[in-house]
Amino acid sequence: MIVERVVEPSDEVVAALARLVPQLSPGRPTPGLVELAEIVAAPGATLLVARDRGDIVGTLTLLLFRVPTGIRGFVHDVVVDEAARGRGVGEALTREALALARTAGASSVHLTSRAEREAANRLYRRLGFTRHETNAYVWRPD
């Protein structure tokens, strides 16, 4: 298995996201070529994919940004294909994201994970993430 950064939008990545995103967030729209191009071009955004025998079996998005207190990171939309779970895909993606964050000088990397994603939560704790007691708020336009 290899983990690589997506540097150009492609039909292959669009198709992989169309297959993977519903496994993470059913009913959410999946990006087409235009949206994928926006993700790839966005400053501070890194879209990683994991390949097993050439096939994309997982993805993770890392956002790095500067705030007055330093460089922060946030991991979003980690998803591993159901058929590839338990084979270290999520770990490989997360380790690569953390290495990129470390190289960029990030003082912290944050993520959220639903409680029912037990395997993912175990992975994050094993990789050194600690549960942060806070109030998380979400705003959504009407």
Shape: globular
Low-confidence stretches: none
Helix/strand structural class: alpha+beta
Mean pLDDT metric: 96
Q: In the residues, how many domains can be counted?
A: 1
- Count of helical regions: 4
Q: What is the CATH first-level class name?
A: Alpha Beta
> What is the rounded distance between the termini?
42 Å
Spell out the CATH superfamily: Gcn5-related N-acetyltransferase (GNAT)
Work out the strand percent. Answer: 25-35%
Structural notes for this entry:
The protein is built from 4 helices and 5 strands. It is of the alpha+beta class. A 5-stranded mixed β-sheet has the order 1-2-3-4-5, with helices on both faces. A hairpin with a 2-residue loop joins strand 2 and strand 3 (55-67). The radius of gyration is 15 Å and the shape is globular. The termini are far apart.
